[in-house]
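Many introductory courses stop at the sequence. We go one step further.
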Amino acid sequence: MILAGDIGGTKVNLALAPSPGEAGTASGLLAMETFPSNTPGGLHAIVATFLSHNASLGKPVKACLGIAGPIKDDVCRATNLPWVIDARELEATLGIPRVALLNDLEANAYGLNALEGNPANFLTLAEGEPTKGNRCVVSAGTGLGEAGIAWDGTRYLPFACEGGHTSFSPQTLLDEELLDYLKWEYGHVSWERVVSGMGIANIYRFLRDTSGRPQTAKVAQEMEACGDIGAVVSKWALSAAAGGPGCPLCTKTMNLFLTYYGAEASNLALKIMARGGVYIGGGIAVKNLALMQSTTFMDAFLSKGRMRALLQTFPVRVILNDKAALLGAAWYACNAMGE
């Protein structure tokens, strides 16, 4: 039995998967449960609760956890959580003989091994010219995760990076004003500050405070009631795109967000030389498919001057399966951790 985990800034997804040779299910997972990341007791308590809920399935002999943050010597200081996760401590406290930690986007990249047999797991934004070659994954959610996937001539080798924390690079006067606005709050302004759930909120606040456009009263009330600015902005932008009631500030916010998302996705694609494909992960893309399929994202993706023709050859796909990281962690435990 294998324990797989996808640990993000907002929620923790855990699953049990069969070891090689054991009977499985159509999804490849035997049990799955989601916990808020702010659950009292932190990760140790969350994992212990999950295992107690599924004690009838047996005790896992291996675990692989994908975590949003850099990993060194099997220890991760989570980027958007006050957690330090140590694989050896988890082995000792949970009684699991072997625990491996992956960056969460690295786990997503390994998940492609489990997803590629089913076209329904992807939405194609650009066909490009499919070929064997390097790939990359860029994923906006609570934060902005990025990973590369090297092609060595026979197999794909995912590797982690922290590209989402590189410096936001403005291209227009409006971008420069946004950068100045966010510097007052953050000092260093990374791509994550504009391409993530917090990024949507940051862009909306900037436009609200500087554009002179009035807020839609109902939108402001919803934001105050639920506290999730990004979710409200997305809802109203989708409504306007579908011909329903809209909010000009929300639509402008999402247009800027998609522009920055496309620009940073092609930044990564060019650095990795991702001829094998650019994969867009994370919950924001899936929840906003109608907006992702507008021209805004791909126009920004291709807007790289002399590299436009090259980028037009890169396939671009949205990952639709929200279990990609879990399946990737399970795949790694089965295929890369040994017996």
